[in-house]
Amino acid sequence: MTETADRTPSERADVCIVGAGPAGALSAHRLARRGYDVVVLEAGERFDFEDRKARMERDIRPGHGPLSVWEMGGPRDRFSSEGEWFYPLNAARVKGVGGTTLHWQGMVMRLHETDFHSWPIEYSDLRPYYARAEEALGVAGADDNPYAPPRERPFPMPAFPPSHSDSIFAEACEDLGVTMHSVPNARNSEAYDDRSACVGYGTCKPVCPSGAKYTADHHVEKAESEGARVIDQAPVQRLEHDDSGERVTAAVYATPDGATHRQEAREFVLAAGGVEIPRLLLLSESSQYPDGLANSSGAVGRYFMDHLFAGVGGTVDRETRQNHVGFITSECHQFYDDPTRGTEGSDGGIPEWTAEDGSEPAPDSIKLEFLNYAGPSPVEMALSGDEWGDDLLDTLREGYGNSIAMGGLVGQRPRKENCITLDSSTTDDHGNPVPEIHWRVDDRTKASLRRANEIQRAVMDELGADVSWTVGPENTGPAFHHMGTTRMGTDPAESVVNPRLRTHDLRNLAIASSSVFRTSGALNPTLTIAALALKATDHVEERL
Predict the structure, then answer these.
(1) Segment 2-33, tens digit of pLDDT
(2) 467-486 pLDDT, tens digit each
(3) 359: DSSP letter
(4) How many Å apart are CA 145 and CA 118, to the nearest integer?
(5) Per-residue pLDDT at 3
(6) DSSP 381-449
(7) Is 159 helix (H, G, I), strand (E, B) or coil?
(8) What Rg value do the Cα atoms of the chain yield, rounded?
C-alpha cells in the first residue's frame, strides 16, 4: 500500500500540517472534523498495527539493535552532535505516522502553575485545553496529588493501582514524610475509545502491541475518517513564502520516487518536533529571511532544553516483582516547586538541601518516580546469556526478583548556547544539511540531579537496600524531551511565536510543538504539547 500510495499534492487545502505525531494528528482531526480540507505531510512511513508483536520481539532479542524497532537510522536520519555532551538523537525519536508516541513511556502530567511564570500565557489559559487533551488521549489518573494544579473534572479513566513494588516503597516514604501519589498515564485502565484495556505486555517503551497505550496514529485514522489526507514518506524540504514575506505559500516535499512536489494551503502548521521544526525553518532561508524563515529574532533553534534522568537502584531482601508492570504507577511531586525543602517523618525525614560549596546554585524542579522495571527481566537474561538448563535457571533465580529502584527527572533552564543548527558538512538522503545539536548540562542542572539523588538514596537507605548503581550529575543522560527551539513570547525581537502559537514573522504559519516552551519544568511534556496543539488549532480556525 505504501509503495502505490498517491503522494501528489492536493489541488486545494485549507491547512497543511507538517508532522503526524500527537500535535499534528490532533490538529488534523479537529480541523477535518470541522469541515476543512487538511493535508498532513509526514517524513516517515506508515507502520502496520499488526506488526507490533514482531517489533516487540525485535526489541527483546539481543540480535537486533534498538533503532531497528521503528526503522530509525541511515542517511534519512543523519545528525551531528557537538559540545561536551553527546546527544543520541535517533534514540530519542521515531519518524512515522504516530511520531514519537510510537515508543514513548506514556506519562501525561499537567505542568504546574509555577512553570508558567516566565511564559506569556498562564496555566489558566491552558487549563481547558489540558482537559480536552486528556479526553482525546485517554488518560487514566486520580485526583490524589496534593501538589498538582487545580482540575475542572475527573480523569477520563480511573488510575492504575499502585504496584507491588510501590507498596514496598510506601512504608519507607511514610516514615520519611515523602508523599507518594498516582501517575496520570495515557494508557487504558479500562476499554476506552475503541481501544482495549492494558493487558500487561510490559514492553510499553518502545512498543505496546495491544494498543492500550495511546499512539498518535489513532487520531491520524480519525482525521482520515473525517476527510483529511495524510501523505507518508513525504519529508518537507523547505517552506516557500510570497513576495511580501508575510505568508507561506507552499511546503516543498520529496517522495520515494525521486519527485518533488509543492503543497499549497491557506494555513500551515508545523508539528514535527523540537529538532526538525527549527531545522526546516533554517533550511527555508530566502533573500528576505537570510537567517532562516520566521527567524528575524535569531531565536530559531536557540534555547534547546531536555530533561535529565536521576536514579538510584539496588536490591532488597524481599520479592519486588520487577518488570511485572512495564510503566510507572506512583511518583512524587513534593520537591517540584521547592526542591530545597526538607520533610519531617518518624525516622527523621529528608534534610533540607545544602550547597556543596558557596558557588553551587540552588536546584530547580524535581519529579521523583518509583520504578516498576528495575533490574533485568528473565527473558532478557535468558536471551543474552550463554548458559543452558540448570545453570541458566540458577542464574535467573539469583539475578531476578529482588531489584528495586527510584528514578526522576530534572529540568534545564533555557540557555542560548544550547541550540539546533545546520551541519553543512553532513547531508541527509536528499542532500540537505543535517541538524546539529549543541548541548551541555550546566551547574544548576547538576545541582538538581545531586538533590534528586540525595532524596532517592535516603528512601533506599530507609528500605535497607543494597545500592549498586546511581545515575547522577556526571553520568546522566537526556529523557528525550525536545523543548524550546522556537520559543513563545510577546516580543518579536526575542521569540519566534506569539501566545496564539503563530509566528511573529508570517501571518499564516503556526507551530504546535514543545519547541515553543519557554521553560522545561521537570514533567513529561506530551500532554502540554497536545494542549498547545488544540489551542493552536482554535486560532488557525479563527484565521480561516
Answers:
(1) 567 899 999 999 999 999 999 999 999 999 99
(2) 999 999 999 999 999 999 99
(3) T
(4) 24
(5) 60
(6) HHHH----HHHHHHHHHHHSS-EEEEEEEE-----TTSEEEEEEEEE-TTSPEEEEEE----HHHHHHH
(7) coil
(8) 23
